[in-house]
Amino acid sequence: MRLSDKGMHRWYCGECKTPVGNTVSSRIPFVGLIHTFMDHESDGRARDEVLGKPLGYVQAKFAIGTPPSPPDHSSLFRVMARSARLLAKWWLTGAGSPSPFFDKGGVPRAEPQVLRPEQRAAL
Fold it and tell me: Hey, what long-range contacts does 54-62 have (CB within 8 A, 24 or more apart)?
């Protein structure tokens, strides 16, 4: 799904409609995963144990509830610089391809539904 023709892709499970993650485009090899769909607790391990400790937070002011304390030695600049470095490396080396979300031509593997303004307002 997309909220506009040029908006990010919001990926959902085709069967149960569970949100999976968000991608900007096929050229940016990054997906923001929505951790609530992962079954990390079935084996008794905590999310940080499975995924690793957070390196920092971006846009925490929009968090619902009280966001956790930032990790030690964390700053928005460090998080953004690390992300930019990794994205550039993946883009230059082609490590983001093939993608589970886009084919080799950069076309989404599922046709995105673009919500019209009145559909968005109804949500």
Answer: 55/79, 55/82
The mean pLDDT value of the chain amounts to 84
Q: Which amino acid is at 67?
A: P
DSSP assignment letter at 35:
G
Q: What whole-number distance in Å separates Cα of residue 51 and Cα of residue 88?
A: 22
The tens digit of pLDDT for each residue in 8-26 reads: 999 998 888 888 889 988 8
Separation between Cα atoms, residue 67 and residue 61, nearest integer Å: 8
Calpha distance 23→102 (Å, rounded):
10
The total of structural domains in the chain comes to 1
64 Cβ contact list (under 8 Å, min separation 6): none
What's the CA gap between 55 and 62, in Å, rounded? 18
30: closest CA among 71, 89, 112, 75? 89
Say what the pTM is: 0.69
Domain hosting residue 69, numbered range = 9-122
Do the domain assignments include residue 45?
yes
